[in-house]
Amino acid sequence: MSSSKHKPSLKFGVMLFPGSNCDYDCHYAVREVLGEEAEFIWHADGSPLRYDCIILPGGFSYGDYLRPGAIGKFAPAMERLREYAAGGGLVLGICNGFQILLEAGLLPGAILRNQGLKFICQDVYLRVEKSDSPFTSLFRPGQIVRIPINHYEGNYLADEETLNKVTSKGQIIFRYCDSQGRVSEEANPNGSLANIAGLTNEQGNILGMMPHPERCCEKELGGEDGLLVFRSITNSLKGGREAVAG
Amino acid sequence: MPANQAKDSLLELALSHGLSRQEYRQIQPLLKREPNQVEVGIFSAMWSEHCSYKSSRLHLKKLPSRGERVIYGPGENAGVVAIDDNLALAFKMESHNHPSSIEPFQGAATGVGGIIRDIFTMGARPIALLNSLCFGPLEEARNRYLLSQVVAGIAWYGNCMGIPTVGGETRFAQCYRDNCLVNVFCLGLVEQGKIFTARAGGVDNPVIYVGSATGRDGIHGATMASQEFDEGADQLRPTVQVGDPFTEKLLLEACLEAMGTGCLVGIQDMGAAGLTCSSVEMADRGGMGIELDLSRVPVRERGMDPYELMLSESQERMLLVARQGSEEEIKKVFEKWGLPAVVVGKVTPDGNLRVMKGDQELASIPTPLLTSQAPVYDRSAKAPAYLDEVRCLDLDCLAEPKDYSQCLLSLLASPAIASKGWIFRQYDHMVGLNTVIRPGADAALLRVKGTAKGIALTVDGNGRFCYLDPRTGSGLTVCEAARNLACVGARPLALTDCLNFGNPEKPEVMWQFSQAIEGMRAACQALGVPVVSGNVSFYNETSGQGIYPTPTVAMVGLMQERSRYLTCWFKNEGDVIVLLGTTGLDIGGSEYLNIIHGRVQGTPPPLDLGLETGVILTCLEAVEQGLINSAHDCSDGGLAVALAECCLGPDGQRYGAKIALAEEMRLDGLLFGESSARIVVSLEGENLSPLQSIAKTHKVPVKVIGEVTGNRLRLGRWIDLRVEEMEQVYTQSLEARLATEKGERGR
Fold first, then answer.
1. CB pair distance less than 8 Å for B160 and A120
2. What predicted TM-score, i.e. pTM, was given to this entire model?
3. Which residues contact B3 (CB under 8 A, 6 or more apart)?
């Protein structure tokens, strides 16, 4: 099924918490579609992390009965992730992975329940707010992409000071929009502050996003926009030699 | 206590658990002594309708269950069907009606949990869920509450497990007001060499308990599901189990990992009647005995007596039989996942279920007394009196609508027909990266990674048809499922069912049941579709009022080349629209008659199994030869609704149509009648003649009825609607009905 013919040269780590359920999907997207190496990192494993990029996948870590990510942040592997990230390593947190990064304080802000108090699984449109991040290097500035969301708690919140800071420092990577790229209340599926769907830390090496790029890496599953996130990562890691998608 | 008094209290205990006086009296001669309290509890659970199938067993035998691809049919935790030389699918559907009526969120959630365990018990990784739901009309607040909570419960459990819910159906009728139906289906993928069964084997092999600790929840769940409700049903709430999907997710991963060690002999989930049923069934299937020591069972409440331990239905528990000496290896796997694994007993050669507490024997029963020698009834059956009354429909007294456009909009807004997007959006339907056709189509389509194959899934039921004629109705249900699969391009492999009925002790209900089985048998035979698993839910009655007889069918189909799959939506301006099959004057039992005229009357459309087979084969061959661009089954709302739905494709890909029909019968019959065996297809004009040749070989009438064009649906001079307007009504109606009030608890 692998669509890539090149020899893998990069190694991705996919962190596996009890209750993660998009772990295999991320692993599949990296290995079978992107064509790079992927390994699972067990939550209880405290050994140093040596990867080119680490993915925190979606799911319900430890059941998330208390609050999404509230227990996940205490995992021994998370301590190692801090060290890895402090050294500039790339981290991509998707959905529950994003929630864990927020709880761990590696990203600013917090997540509330969706405004409509319902779980939402559907495609949404996103506007790419910053195309010179390591996660979006192959997107055009302002590009509109379609990627599915799948969460009960995706309503991003931050205080005014934080919002101003992440805005001015260019940390907002994706915003919810409509098919025409309009960032509006109608196009906001969960009540997120400023339609924020994904943002990075100040250093720009950690991205948390509610939408699931691993779910749309193949035409057969309804689109390939998600693949561009993974390809951007490999592109950045390899020194940005690939051309931006038309 | 004097002996007589003790005996009386045991009888009372048995009666309170749903055994009849006569059944209780059978225990003593079988056991050759008086049973004790624990044993009475075990007998009453195992002899309950829910566990023993005592009223249905004789009838279920009539259903065809064999086929070249069938690896395991009924009798295992799930049916297993091969899709090639290596891979197989394990699937089953089960009802959780009674618990969901009492406590909808947990009732539905634990229904999902139970069916998932049935699948991974077979060694399969679950990859898809479906559900079929029936409620009372949404005008009533309590029904809105039930729907919202059932959907939320299914979403909570399935989403957390990371198993996509890829399809389903939701129906409404007054008869489901006090007995809602929640039927859940799960499908798993397994390599044929890695299939597990629930058999105990090897004398002295350890019996290992894994998963959650045992509490007092769900005691008598099996008994509760074998009784009618009355006004006090709310008080049964404590008998509903409480789910913990996180623990089940761990259990799933741990069990699959443990299966890979080669240490396991057999595995069985603890569902209805918990430790009792799982140990008895495992021992019985393996022709062995099992001895349990209750003092070793992990508990989460203090002071639980043996009786409670044996009958608790605490969720997320499994019983394993492992090879002697492998205990530590098994424990290590479960420890990794944070779950206890405790040796609670051993396999014995004597065929008895022996329950110990330390050195003290609490019960000892030969397992065949609880299984093969359990009561079986050939209950009397009699056609219900209501039939004569409801079957006569005088069309002359039925006024035809004045405004057919309005009529079509009303049907598109009917909750049975309107888009179920509000429901599907709450289910994770994409996790696993296999969902090629998402919910809301004729059938869902999953890919099988590493192959070109696709698996199509559909679930269908039609209680109204079955109420008017259970035999025809259940046959039509099977045919509709097969047609839905054909519309995406998949050949039917096998089916699983949930047979939801009233109280089988009533001859009228038994008649409905036996007729439904007969209809299902005939249709399955004609279509060559075996029934490989299923479940019966009787006693869906409250205060003497029963539900419509509602056999629900989930059918699984296979596509060799999934890239050829079709959806129901029109694809190209200028394509020709063709109707396969014939339209009769079939207004009886239709959604049109129900919604527009408020009547449930007449007889369902006739069942023509020859034509059904021909239409299905024509559609399949046309898909396989790449002749057609869309296919959609005509069902609820008839031809007009089917055509409208063909116009309502995904955003940016919507087309209108211009249709011309000869006015050969009453217009409402022509437009909204529900004649079976019909599929609407669209294709390029040049492919018409090859399609006609295929249809001819299957003796299927083909009628060109119009073309794909513009952005309006124009049906003769009777209907003219903008696609956009239809789309709004279709997509927003269900949500609007549910939003009238927050789903608060009423009654």
1. no
2. 0.95
3. none
